[in-house]
Amino acid sequence: MKDFREHFFMLYTKLKDGENFAFSRFSDGELRIMQNQKLILGDNFNQIGPRRRTSQYAPEDRKHFDPKLHPHVRDKLMEAYRYKAHNYYVGLSCRCCVLDRDFREMLKWYGEDDEFLTWSNLWVNGNYPLFVKYMIPEFSNHKIVYILNERGTLSGLPFKVEKDFRVGDNCIVNDFNMSSFVSLWMEAENIENHVFLFSASSLSNFMIYDLYRDYPNNTYIDIGTTLNPYIGLATDREYLKGKDPKVCVW
């Protein structure tokens, strides 16, 4: 049986030792897109399939996926999810955070469980204090490239960013081809042994897949909203308030 904290320290040790890897998080939003359900996170509501509920989202968190308009988004997400390569870690939505049938569906899509399948929530919930204690200080020891929303500010980060790339609203659609722009820079600068951090919704999954496939001599980490308190973006998630100590199970 896989262990939530053991997997955290496994990836932390790889980072600390300079062993290149990729970690891509397929959380509940990605799950709904992969299920080909209409997904809207609006300013005062969310919609999953036909179900609409009242809810508020910060501008950088809003997204709109329509299976009829954006089938390429779902196709790319499935391609990234099913990709297999050494040290390409796929984080899925665990059974304790989504329905058991959703967890099993994600397992079925992936195929046979293996050593490179892990939690999408690896940096959050009960592991977030570990992320703050270990991962954030470790970033100072690496050449960091950060892909984040255009509203984020870097001045509050406790580590240096060598290069940043910005995405806009609903980046899963509007910045779909962002990988090509980053690739041009990597080719021009002969980028190797850098650590790429991604805070760009499902676009992170696309980019991590594209870049690790083509440039495996770097590390690519989907960090989601873990650095929001440092970059001036929304901090309304429970784990950022220290209110979600849950240790996720497999």
Total strands: the figure is 11
Instruction: State the end-to-end distance.
Output: 7 Å
The overall pLDDT average reads 96
**Which overall shape is indicated by the principal axes computed on the Cα atoms?**
globular
**Biggest sheet, spatial arrangement of strands:** 7-6-1-11-10-8-9
List unreliable stretches of 5+ residues. none
The sequence of SSEs as H and E is HEHEEEEHEHEHEEHHEHEH
Tell me the number of structural domains: 1
Strand fraction equals: 15-25%
Pairing-aware structural class of the strands and helices?
alpha/beta
| Number of continuous helical runs | 9
How large is the radius of gyration?
A: 17 Å
Biggest pleated sheet:
7 strands, parallel
Q: Helical content, roughly?
A: 25-40%
Task: Walk me through the topology.
Elements: H1 4-17, E1 22-25, H2 28-34, E2 39-41, E3 45-48, E4 51-54, E5 63-65, H3 71-82, E6 88-92, H4 100-110, E7 117-119, H5 128-139, E8 144-149, E9 163-167, H6 171-174, H7 178-189, E10 195-198, H8 203-214, E11 219-222, H9 228-231
Parallel strand pairs: 1-6, 1-11, 6-7, 8-9, 8-10, 10-11
Antiparallel strand pairs: 2-3, 2-5, 3-4
Helix pairs in contact: 1-5, 3-8
